[in-house]
Amino acid sequence: KAGVTQTPRYLIKTRGQQVTLSCSPISGHRSVSWYQQTPGQGLQFLFEYFSETQRNKGNFPGRFSGRQFSNSRSEMNVSTLELGDSALYLCASSSIKGVGQETQYFGPGTRLLVL
Amino acid sequence: AQKVTQAQTEISVVEKEDVTLDCVYETRDTTYYLFWYKQPPSGELVFLIRRNSFDEQNEISGRYSWNFQKSTSSFNFTITASQVVDSAVYFCALSEGGRSQGNLIFGKGTKLSVKP
């Protein structure tokens, strides 16, 4: 099976712009989660989607949003970019076999640099 | 509030040495899951192990072993006979509740350098 794929892998934007990142989960996986990784804050949970519905959300401002499509692919959007949004954005997918049986598999990430 | 602490920021060992990475967690839930992930320089997080709060059996997988102790809220990871390829950042993570792993709480990570 192919792993989690994320596009693009690298992105350079300027302050005030917006950006959309894409994540394709492992085939058959219906849950997609997003994380932000920075040297200062480490790995922080952004949000989780399951069956096109946001099930869980981390403590990030409303500039960060996401969605999931019927094929389980997910996108996250960051509007009005700030310098502090520079980070590695990781996507993870899991199959929902049942409570306690899931494992999250991560993609290679999208490295975003905001100038 | 839930929290994961990895007190060791960086560890450097020589190849073939054994090394233990510490992880201490805090949670109020009785049902929770603990994980270890490896992040090589490429950036992708590689899943290593998941353990639920009701299973305190230690686990061994090749050169890797994990020691889960609820009494001390610790879930330590040992690499036996380390190799250069083990060099990476290792993260311990916690997921609360009897539901999916949508929200993983990560420690700050331990950077392991294995020198030849």
In words, what does this structure look like?
The complex is a heterodimer of chains A (115) and B (116). Chain A has 115 residues and is mostly beta strands. Chain A is 0% helix and 52% strand. In chain A, strands 2, 4, 5, 6, 9, 10 and 11 form a seven-stranded mixed beta sheet that branches. A four-stranded antiparallel beta sheet of chain A has the order 1-3-8-7, with no helix packed on it. The model of chain A has no long low-confidence stretch (mean pLDDT 92). Chain B has 116 residues and is mostly beta strands. Chain B is 0% helix and 53% strand. Chain B is built from no helices and twelve strands. Chain B has strands spanning 3-5, 10-14, 19-21, 24-26, 32-39, 46-52, 59-61, 64-69, 74-79, 88-96, 105-106, 110-115. In chain B, strand 8 (64-69) and strand 9 (74-79) form a beta hairpin. The mean pLDDT of chain B is 91. Classes of the chains: A mainly beta (115), B mainly beta (116).
Task: Give a quick summary of the entry.
With 115 residues, chain A is mainly beta. Chain A has strands spanning 5-7, 10-13, 19-24, 31-38, 42-50, 53-57, 64-68, 74-78, 87-94, 105-106, 110-114.
Distance between the termini of chain B: 41 Å
How many alpha or pi helices of chain B? Answer: 0
Global morphology of chain B: globular
Helix amount of chain B: under 10%
Q: Strand-and-helix sequence of chain A, N→C?
A: EEEEEEEEEEE
Mean pLDDT of chain A: 92
Q: Largest sheet of chain B, if any?
A: 6 strands, mixed
The proportion of residues in beta strands of chain A is over 45%
- Rounded mean pLDDT of chain B is 91
- Calculate Rg of chain A over CA atoms: 14 Å
Give the tally of β-strands of chain A. 11
Distance between the termini of chain A: 37 Å
What are the segments of chain A in which pLDDT stays under 50 over at least 5 consecutive residues? Answer: none
Give the count of helical stretches of chain A: 0
Q: Which structural category do the helix and sheet elements of chain B fall into?
A: mainly beta
Structural class of chain A: mainly beta
Radius of gyration of chain B: 14 Å
Largest interface: A-B, 28 and 25 residues
